[in-house]
Structures are given as C-alpha cells and as structure tokens.
Amino acid sequence: MQKIRKGDEVVVIAGRDKGKRGTVLARVDATHLLVEGVNVVKKNQRPNPMKGQPGGIVDKIMPIDQSNVMLFNPATGKGDRVGIRTLEDGSKVRFFKSNEEIVKA
C-alpha cells in the first residue's frame, strides 16, 4: 500500500517549491509524483499542424520525488508522516502519526 496516492493533498518539504501545497495529479512511477502547481517549468513547444497545436512557450508540470513531499494534515495544518494500520476486519488504512487520525481517502 502506497502512503501517497492520487488525489491526496501534499505539502513540499524540500527543493525550489518548498512550502507549496498541491493535489497529487498522478503517480509517474514507484517514487515520482505529479503535483498540481509544483515543479512547473517552461517548455519551448514546436507547432504541430497535424494535431492543431500552436507553437510557443508552455508551462509543463514535471515529476517530483515522493521523498520531497508530505501528506497535508488538515487537523494540524502542516505536513505529517503517514503509517499503515490493519483494522479488525482485515482492511488496511493510512493514519497520521501525530494524532493517530485515519486519512480520509
């Protein structure tokens, strides 16, 4: 079970965008995430008339390593560490380590 999933709200703890909050748009691979509004770069886009794409400079979201983000805890208002716990019925849930509250998925 992965501790950070698509749709989670995260806060960046290291790098150029430290302190920014955003929603996880997708998992690129086992260790990289696409986070909305984080690690945005300018890319020179060539026009492609076959696809109807105009040329110019466009913003592109680049992957960020999951070690540089923490799950945002709304109760404390900060990033928080996450653990995994098995309930009595056998299902696994994520919980915040600071206040033992279950993560709303």
Secondary structure topology:
Layout lengths: L8 E4 L8 E7 L4 E4 L4 E6 L10 E6 L2 E2 L3 E5 L4 E3 L1 E5 L5 E5 L9
Antiparallel strand pairs: 1-2, 1-7, 2-3, 3-6, 4-5, 7-8, 9-10
How does the overall form come out from the CA principal axes?
elongated
User: Low-confidence runs (pLDDT<50, min 5 residues)?
Assistant: none
Quote the CATH topology of the domain at 9-47 and 58-77: SH3 type barrels
Question: How many helices in DSSP terms?
Answer: 0
Strand order of the largest sheet: 6-3-2-1-7-8
Structural class: mainly beta
The CATH C-level name of the domain at 9-47 and 58-77 is Mainly Beta
The ordered H/E elements are EEEEEEEEEE
Beta strands, count: 10
Distance between the termini: 13 Å
Mean pLDDT: 94
